Every structure is written in C-alpha cells, then in structure tokens.
Amino acid sequence: MTHRRTPDEQPETSEAYLQIGEVAERTGVTQRTLRFYEEKGLLKPPSRLEGGFRLYSEDDVQRVEQIRRLQTLLGFTLADIKEMVEAEEVKSQIRAEYRKDADITDRRAKLSRAQEVTERQVAVVEQKLAALEEMRANLQQKLENYRNWIAQLDEKAAAGSRS
Amino acid sequence: MTHRRTPDEQPETSEAYLQIGEVAERTGVTQRTLRFYEEKGLLKPPSRLEGGFRLYSEDDVQRVEQIRRLQTLLGFTLADIKEMVEAEEVKSQIRAEYRKDADITDRRAKLSRAQEVTERQVAVVEQKLAALEEMRANLQQKLENYRNWIAQLDEKAAAGSRS
DNA sequence: AATAACCTTGACGTACGCGTTAATGTCGCA
DNA sequence: TGCGACATTAACGCGTACGTCAAGGTTATT
Description:
The structure is a homodimer.
Chain A: H1 20-27, H2 31-39, E1 47-48, E2 54-55, H3 58-72, H4 78-97, H5 104-162
Antiparallel strand pairs in A: 1-2
Helix pairs in contact in A: 4-5
Chain A binds a DNA duplex through helix 2.
C-alpha cells in the first residue's frame, strides 16, 4: 500500500465519491457483494469514472448499511429488502423534483406510498421487539433456575463436608 | 381424512407421543425439516414405533419451537443453534440423573455451562433489542418527516384552490 | 385381505447469498 | 512507459436449509 488513489476530485460536483474498494472497507461487505446488490437492483447503478470504475456516493454507503441492518437485524431476504429500499428512492426523487415542482398530486401520492411502507416497517420492527422481549424474559427465568439449582448443589456440598 | 391414527397409547409411559405428521402440523415446519434437524443433530433421534415410525415427545415439540425462534428472531444458523440447544440437553440430563445422584461436581459443571450459554444468549438478545429500538426511532423520525411534508403539500393545495 | 392414510429411507433438486478464480483493463506515480 | 495497486466482467462453485420425488413399508379400519 505505497500509494493509494483517493478519487476525491470529481469533475462537476464537490461531493466525495468513493471507489468500490473504499465502500467495501467502510461498510464491511466485499466488493463482490456490492456488485451483487447492484445486479439484484438493491443499489442503483453508480456513476462511473471514465475508465469504468464505479463511483459511489455517501448515499450509496448509507443504503448499503441500511440493507445490512435489514438483513441481520430483521432477517429479511434481499427480495424483501429491495421492495423496502425502493421507498427510499422516493425520497431522493422528491428532493430532485423539489424545485421542478412536478405534479403536486403525484408527489403527494409518492409520499403517501413511502409513508405506508415505513409504517409497515415500524410494525415489523415492533413485532420483532415484542418477540425478543418475551424471549429475554424466558431466558432470564432460566437463569434464575440455574442459579437456584447451583445454590442448592452448593448447599448440599457444604452440608456433606460438615458431616 | 376419514380416520386418523392418533398414537396416544404408549406402552410404558403415560405421555402423549406424537407422530411426525402431528409435530409438523403443530410446529408449522414440514416433516422433511424435522428429519433434517435430526440429521443435523438438532433433535435427538426420537423413539420409534415397532414399525419404525418416529414418536416425538412434548419436549421435542418445545425444542423445535425454540429452534425456529432462534432462527427467525435472532437469525442464527442451524450450526449456531445446535451449539445452543445442546445446553438444553443438560437440563434433561439433570432431570434424568436427579435420582441417580451422579457426580455432584460434574452436575455443577454442567449447570454452569448451561448458565454460561444462556447468559450469552441474553447478551445477544439485548444487543438485538437495542439495535431494533434504534431502528424504530429512526423509522418514526422518518414518519414525522413524511407527515410534515404531506401537510405542507396540502397547505399549498388549499392556498392554490383559494386563489 | 384390501384399502386409505400415514410413514420410511434414499437421492436428486433448488433458491439464496454470496466466494472464487480467470483474464483483462485502468489509474497514478516514477 | 512501466510498474503496482486497484478495478472490470464472466462464469463457475459452494454452503445453508430445506423441497420434491420415488419406491416402498406400516397402521388401523372394513
């Protein structure tokens, strides 16, 4: 690692673009995984350097982290997640169209859609939270039992050594 | 389904034993899955009817439900889960050996092991709970934003219709 | 003893989520 | 212009967690 190309100088924009290696490092997934997510439509095709190198934005990094959370925390499949993150795109669209002042009813509809999806996500999260809390209670009950049994054994051992 | 054999009459014990089909129905997994779990060592080989039919106990049903929870709620692999449920066997062993009064230090060791595994499980559950709570907070923040934006749009629409 | 419902053990198939080469091209610096 | 680090696509591979036959045996009833 003698010299590291950091493509922080982008033609038109002042945003710091990242190559696939850096995104991989920062997000903890492999380059293969990033390309795979792109194939599967979970990440929009990123911009490219003239030579064809992928250039990711900070938003893309966020997206990847979101995907991973949905995978590991909620156990969704990538197909599920694709559905979900498509709601995120609405947000970007809204921002992009903000000045264009596109069809106002259209924007309202999109916002509503995003809201609905988000509400469903909240519901899923809360369901999972409830289940996990029940699980924790059960586990703690078990720990109680273990502690009691061990205490009993220790009492017996003490009594035995006194005899 | 004209007549259904319910093998509720077992030779020596008064426990209600279940055939694989009933267990499948009650747990929501397929028969294939039950055999698969057995192959993988997640379920101990159940007792058999003379003809070779598997006979499961209520404990086995519990076990299956536990496995499924660990899978769907915590996202563990079956290999992970195998490690974990092996601690459960300690409990059965303890019960079995209770009257035999086996080596007391041995039993203490086993209990300690089971306790440790359970504590690790609690830690995992709590970690997951924290992450999910953060996620819920984020989602609810998003909902706030959506609601505000929609409200803004509606205001504009109202203003427009008044002009 | 015939029949339906249930079960058995193989054994091959499949969807998902990437891993792993292989062959090749590009970037930035010396 | 040559080098090393970094990237590209294409294609095959793999582990996990089962699904899905196929061919046959068992159980309880009639």
